[in-house]
Amino acid sequence: MEKFNTHTGLVVPLDIANVDTDQIIPKQFLQKTERVGFGVHLFHDSRYLDHAGTQVNPEFILNKVEYKGASILLTRENFGCGSSREHAPWALQEFGFKVIISSSFADIFYGNCINVGLLPIKLNEAEIDQLFKLSADTQLTLKVDLPNNVITRGELSFTFSLNEFQQYSLENGVDSVGWTLDKLDTIKAFEAKMPAWQ
């Protein structure tokens, strides 16, 4: 997983609350055994007019030309609710998103984002409303500074927070397994001191 420091990107305003993981990546695309190949199916039922995914829906926001290459997703509360599939953050990340901004996330989805290096940012609802208003007037580009926990657009700024371990994981590009492997020498030294019967 890549280290996350700062990121500047175009914002896609997805003005929908309670987006569940089946909307993000429908169940029929969960049969792959690797973490790749999910981006093309992101929001499949909204992005395409047919089941096969050959007819693009021109009305869906991710298909609009002005948002091509966007890397920050702005959305409403309870994003990532529903089943706990890891494929949802995989699909978002493979599509090109680096940051998701919402007022709240489903807990398991939030943790899964951290585990793949996708930054979920929680702002209060008034701040989310402000960003949606800005995005309605113009194409919105934001700078996300993870070490300082701040989002900026010109003179405008918003602060956010993560817990210490989540911050460490994203800044250092390690998930829980990677963090544990970094402690392998300490673990082996502890085990060597244990009596054999334990």
Structure description:
33% of the residues lie in helices and 17% in strands. It has 198 residues and is an alpha/beta fold. It has a single domain (6-193), classed as Alpha-Beta Barrel (Aconitase, domain 4). A hairpin with a 2-residue loop joins strand 6 (150-153) and strand 7. Helix 3 (87-95) crosses helix 4. The model has no long low-confidence stretch (mean pLDDT 92).
The ordered string of helix (H) and strand (E) elements is: EHHEHEHEHEEEHHH
Radius of gyration: 19 Å
Number of strands: 7
| Sheet with the most strands, sense and barrel status | 7 strands, mixed
How many domain units? 1
User: Numbering strands along the chain, what is their spatial order in the largest sheet?
Assistant: 4-3-2-1-5-6-7
Number of helical stretches of at least 4 residues: 8
> What is the distance, rounded to the nearest whole angstrom, between the alpha carbons of the first and last residues?
35 Å
* CATH topology type: Aconitase, domain 4
The CATH architecture category equals Alpha-Beta Barrel
So what's the overall shape?
Answer: globular
Give the overall average pLDDT.
92
CATH superfamily heading: Aconitase, domain 4
Structural class: alpha/beta
**What fraction of residues sit in β-strands?**
15-25%
Please sum up the structure shown.
A seven-stranded mixed β-sheet has the order 4-3-2-1-5-6-7.
For this entry, give a set of tags.
single chain, 198 residues, alpha/beta, Aconitase, domain 4, seven-stranded mixed beta sheet, 8 helices, 17% strand
